Amino acid sequence: MSFQAEKALVRAHYGALSKATPETVAQVLAERTSADWHWRGMHPFHEQHGAKAVAESFWQPFLTAMSRVQRREDIFFAGRNEIDGFKSVWVVSMGHLMGLFDTPFLGIAPSRKITMLRYAEFNRVENGVIVETALFCDLIHLMHQAGLRPIPAQTAQHLVQPGPMTHDGLLRADAALDDGVQTLALINRMIGDIDEANTVAKYTPQEELAQCWHDDMIWWGPDGIGATYTIDRYIEQHQRPFRTKLEGRNFNGHVSRLAEGNYGGFFGWPNLTLTVSGDYMGHPASGQSADMRVVDIYRRDGDKLAENWIFIDILHFLNMQGHDVLARIG
């Protein structure tokens, strides 16, 4: 099973974007996307349709604010989507969009310094064009780099995050099919462990995680939560706050879930709906139900997961509770 045509299309799309300006980006986007291209972006961009709308919503403001933009890619893979019965082909890219932050963006004052915008993007390719995209980016981390602290309380570490420890995340050539099958099966087993833990207290948190994770796992979480290392610190710095401060967890499913080689991932729109019952991310309990749009990208090492990069639309999650972070900083 080859994904070379789909990978080549997305790489050409990124190559053209690297030369785009605010004036030309709409035309560049239209070259390899369908007329009814369905694009999903994080708050405040949300859902857009067609190249012109995507350009006006995200790319024109971003390219106006950031000069000399480089795509510094750490992970690149493709595969068939389990969610639709392995019919559609998606190409996944993750890394940073690096530029010089020279003019305001979303009300954030420019730093005139290097700024690294973490991103993860899923592109569905069909009949030689991109027909569907989800672009997740860590806007709170961008604010952090510009000297702002929009989330007052933090549980883990906030930093510019590296790619895989193994430096093998760019799957330009297609990986062996069996490797992707193993990775996807492990991701599904891990999801099953979470579902079971939410209904039956069968294992301790350490025992639950040890079934699918190496003890020296790295959880590269979004700014506002942060990154954490080892099973014990992950429990302390993310899992315990998440499970004790958020109630009524409802899993809404995924739009796309796939794997190739030792890498795999998924996104949902939204993945979860939860009620905030305790102080979380520096905000008091709201009692409000709110959505979490999430991307997870994984690296498998042998029979267990070793690294996990997470993107959460935290601005949207907080906005649904009445906390408009962008209005506050503006």
Mean residue pLDDT: 96
The tally of helices reads 9
Topology, number of strands: 15
The end-to-end span amounts to: 49 Å
Concise structural overview:
By secondary structure, this protein is α+β, with helices and mostly antiparallel strands. Helices cover 29% and strands 35% of the residues.
Secondary structure layout plus pairing:
Blueprint: H1 4-17, H2 25-31, E1 33-41, E2 47-49, H3 51-65, E3 66-80, E4 89-101, E5 114-126, E6 129-137, H4 139-145, H5 177-197, H6 205-210, E7 213-220, E8 228-229, H7 231-245, E9 246-251, E10 256-260, E11 263-267, E12 272-276, E13 289-292, E14 294-301, E15 304-312, H8 314-319, H9 325-329
Parallel strand pairs: 1-6, 7-15
Antiparallel strand pairs: 1-2, 3-4, 4-5, 5-6, 7-8, 9-12, 10-11, 11-14, 12-13, 14-15
Helix pairs in contact: 2-3
